[in-house]
Amino acid sequence: MKTMKTIKFLTIALAMTSFVACDNDSDDLLPVVSITVEDIYAPQEGGQGQPISGAFTKFDFDLGMETDSETDWDIAFRATDIIINGGMSMGTTDEPDRTGDAGAYIVTGTMADVTEVDVNLFTQDSGSGYAIMSGSGNGWYTYSGPPTYLITPTAGKILVFKTADGKYAKVEILSYYQGAPENPDAFTDPSRYYTFNYVYQPNSGETTF
Amino acid sequence: MLNKSQVLIFALLIVFSSNGQEKQENDSIIENELEEVIVTGTKTIRKLSSLPLPALIITQKDIENSNSTRLPEILNEQAGLITISDFGGGEGIQLQGLDSQYTLILIDGLPIIGRSAGTLDINRFSTGNIKQIEIVKGASSSLYGSEAIGGVINIITKRPAEGFESDLSYYTGSNNTNDTNFLMNYKKNKIGFTLFANSYKSDGYDLDENDELNTVEPFKNYTINSKATFDFSKKLSIAINGRYFDQIQDYIASTELLGESSIKEWNLSLTGNLRSNDKWNNSIELYKTNYYANEYLNTTDGENYSSSFYDHNLMHIEFKSIYKTEVSNTYVFGLGYNNETLERTYFTTRPEFKSPYAFVQYDFKPKEKLNLIIGGRYDSHSEYKSQFSPKAAVRYEINDQAVIKGSLGYGYKAPDFRQLYFNFNNATVGYTVLGYNAVSEVLPQLVDQGQIANIVVPLSEFSNKLQAESSIALNIGTDVKFSSEISSDFNLFLNNIKNLIDTRVIANKINGQNVFSYYNINEVITYGLEINSSYKPNNNFKLSAGYQLLFAFDKEGLRAFNDGEVYARETPVSPAFQLKKNDYFGLYNRSRHMGYIKLFYENYESKFNGNIRLTYRSKYGLYDTNNNTYLDVYDDFVKGYVIADLALNKEINNYSKIGFGINNVFNFKDINNISNISGRIYYSKINIQL
After folding, report:
1. Hey, is the C-beta of B15 within 8 angstroms of any chain A C-beta?
2. Strands in chain A per DSSP E
3. Are the beta carbons of A154 and B627 separated by less than 8 Å?
4. Can you give the pTM of this predicted structure?
5. Distance from CA of B430 to the nearest CA of A (A)
6. Is residue B379 part of a domain?
7. DSSP annotation string for B641-689
């Protein structure tokens, strides 16, 4: 039964995708990709008053996985910071140079709500701050402070990205703890492990998902 | 088996053998019920039943029958009143959905201070010498000025009564709690005197055995209260009242950090009354009070780790004239002056508040069945914007069975000393909190010291004074007498509050922490319905029930939910979805439903009384557990609960009474969420007339 349901769902999903594709007056568009990425580990050194350092963990939407490439990456993680391959480096230790033209903005809504990219909203990393602003409540997460000290992805924050080579993706971060536990415990569950859903539009110039 | 006539003879014997005292008591009960009078609503003596304001009286008998020893116990049993424990350990009262700092607490009409963490801990007050507690709901700043937003609770203590008597009572209960009262009363001709002494000790209790700390650490406190009255003539009388309270409690932060916290409070008042003629009645109040709290922690080798103190003074003078016209319309004129100072840790200055004020009230009956009250008070203030607080109330007798009443009033709460003058730097974490008035002085100093990375709110925003929190309150109700046995009253209430004071980040520090200060932001609305009913089938039984329906919302929250800006997840790792308007639960720590049922039984023949009291509180939320800044229906809630109390009292002879009871019969506890409910308590009590 479960397999049946999955197959049905996939058929419907494919049908819808092809419908969207047909709608766009093109015969050879690639299907929109919808993926859940689990446990991208994004360590950092220092912090808590000490200087922060350590390599960012880079991610490529097209590959759907981590990458070590110096140039071919879209976004990168270090602890709660998320940077994009576009704009300027803030100049923190071990921060990679930007070689692409990525952009980002955050929109309030559900994944399903975000059907179209608003290209006017994109900003890039700069010397004074990242496009995905750091700090609790500013960007993608909320820090509870005492007594639980949990980092929770803020519900209703969808991160919209332009990739390094000008395609679009939308991301909903689900967890910051290893294995995405339902009831994370900041004292026992290892943190800095990103789990997120993303939808990637692989066709150049297409602004809908 | 006894037959009917034997029972009658037996009953008659009891009646005849009892002395006049009991009869007197019976009379006074009946008198009380007919003539319950209240002064808090109008600052004049009014019958409770004819007051156009929502008000209630808790009598000495209510307190005695339920064997309450401290104020929160008896207040918790009233509709729409609940005591909420504060993170500082104090217990404050929530009224019509408003926090404890918005209800004014008076003893004999004079204001009580000592809100060191914002909450006035009403556990301080013994019920041993209370004559009655008067509670007026709805904004009452038109007579009382600051803090009277939700309402006023006035604790009326016993005044000297003709004769001489003294009385000793002792209560002992679970957690090694001991409460001892001595009360002496003397009055002959022109001179009267009372002395009240109370000692209250407890080992406290521990809900969570797994940690080293107790939920409530052991404490002991003493209260001494004495009054002297002099009736120079029928026209002129004065009263002097002194009260002293002293408490010491263990203060334990961990196994390595041990200390003590102590409170010393005194009040001294001189009141005079001159009845010039049938029309004019003039009075004066001179009052001074001091609240001193202090706590310290030492390390195990005796080194002082931390200590802090809080020293608050209030001086109050008020002249009041009451003028009665021939048709018994009443004018009240008042003039007064308050002077407050505070010295405490984390203040750089010793601020002083000076506020002269004046009020006027006209209470009249344009038609026989129609009563109107209009009044207003003007408070001038040295540190914040002056306030004018009007109020109007109306009561109309539809017929012998039903009256309708309504009141509309303004209430405000002045910014407190902390919100204006705090200068606190957390040494371990590194953040700073500055009072609104302290910002323009301290922030530039921090800049000079190179501590500030970035100023978020420009200094110019602090040039205007911080606004007082204020409210407009509407109450509309009806009192209905369905029959001689059943009566009910209904009250719809609405409190519309603006300029609530909150904290925000005003600057970022180079250590990554922030500087916080206070500002006016929130607008809050609370509204609901209160119903109280009583059923008295005969002289022996009384059944009463009360209910409050409450909605309490942040207006910004209502807007955000309405506009679909708030999201939540089913589980922390599932995709987010948009919340609907009805998903907003409202403010923290508010229950939608609260109620009580009480059954009182009194047998005058065998001098026995017993009662069962049930209080209910529906679920409520303490935190936003899903990080969308609002309390919505997908958050974790504290479960609703029922507390049942049982009390039995019996007069042994003319000089002694015994009592026994169980509080919290079902042994309800919520270890994680409710610190002020200790579990089941057994107690017994003895009272001897000396």
Report:
1. no
2. 33-41, 45-47, 50-53, 57-60, 65-67, 75-78, 81-84, 103-108, 141-143, 151-153, 157-162, 168-177, 191-201
3. yes
4. 0.84
5. 10
6. no
7. EEEEEEEEEEEEETTEEEEEEEESTT---BTTTBSS--S-EEEEEEEEE
Query: What is the structure's pLDDT at A2?
Result: 40
> How many beta-carbon pairs below 8 A join chains A and B?
54
Q: Does B176 touch chain A (CB under 8 A)?
A: no
The pLDDT score that the predictor gives to residue B32 is 44
CB contact under 8 A, B627 and A197: no
**What are the Cα distances from residue B257, in Å, to B203, B360, B386?**
19, 54, 45
Name the one residue in this structure whose structure tokens are 């639960």: B585
Provide the 3-class DSSP secondary structure of residue B124. Answer: helix
Q: Does the beta-carbon distance from A110 to B578 stay under 8 Å?
A: yes
Quick one: which of B202, B176, B173 has its CA closest to B686?
B173
Look at chain B and report how many structural domains it folds into. 1
Chain B residue with minimum CA distance to A47: B512
The residues of A whose Cβ lies within 8 A of any Cβ of B are 49, 108-111, 113, 142, 144, 152, 154-157, 172, 174-175, 180-184, 195, 197
The C-alpha angle B569, B572, B575, rounded to 5 degrees, equals 45
Q: Please tell me the predicted confidence (pLDDT) of residue B114.
A: 87
B672 touches chain A (CB under 8 A): no
Tokens 């034997």, located at residue? B6
Residue A195 CA: distances (Å) to CA of A66, A133, A182, A201, B567:
13, 19, 12, 20, 19
B505 in a structural domain:
no
Answer whether B572 sits within 8 Å of A156, measured CB to CB.
no
What's the confidence (pLDDT) of residue A93? 87
For residue A113, list chain B residues with Cβ-Cβ distance below 8 A. 578
- Give the pLDDT confidence score for residue B12 in this predicted structure: 39
Render pLDDT for A23-57 as a digit per residue (tens, 0 to 9).
444 457 888 888 899 999 999 887 665 677 899 99
The contacts of residue B671 (CB under 8 Å, 6+ apart) are B207, B208
What the block records as the tokens of B71 is 């104020």
Does B336 reside within a domain? Answer: no
Q: What is the pLDDT of residues A102-150, one digit of tens each?
A: 999 999 999 998 999 999 999 999 887 899 988 777 889 988 776 778 8
Asked if residue B7 is part of any domain, the answer here is yes
The one-letter amino acid code at A84 reads I
B343–chain A nearest CA distance, Å: 30
Domain, as residue range, for B9: 1-35
Both tokens of residue B479?
Answer: 């009192």
CB contact under 8 A, A152 and B567: no
Q: What's the confidence (pLDDT) of residue B34?
A: 56
Which contacts qualify for B432-435: CB closer than 8 Å, 24 or more apart?
Answer: B432/B509, B432/B513, B432/B514, B432/B515, B432/B516, B433/B503, B433/B515, B433/B516, B433/B517, B434/B506, B434/B515, B434/B516, B434/B517, B435/B517, B435/B518
Cβ burial of B318 (10 Å; 0-12, 13-18, 19+) is: buried
Inter-chain touch B575–A111, beta carbons under 8 Å? yes
User: Mean pLDDT throughout A182-192?
Assistant: 90
The reply to whether residue A108 touches residue B573, judged by beta carbons under 8 angstroms, is no
C-alpha distances in angstroms, B408 versus B54, B357, B405, B474, B531? 11, 21, 11, 5, 19
Residues in chain B within 8 Å Cβ distance of A197: 575
Residue ranges in chain B whose pLDDT is less than 50: 1-33
Inspect the interface and report whether the beta carbons of B566 and A156 lie closer than 8 Å.
yes
Q: What is the pLDDT of residue B87?
A: 57
Identify the residue among B87, B567, B622 best suited for mutation to test binding to A, counting A beta carbons within 10 A and taking the highest.
B567
Q: Cα separation of B655 and A145, whole Å?
A: 59
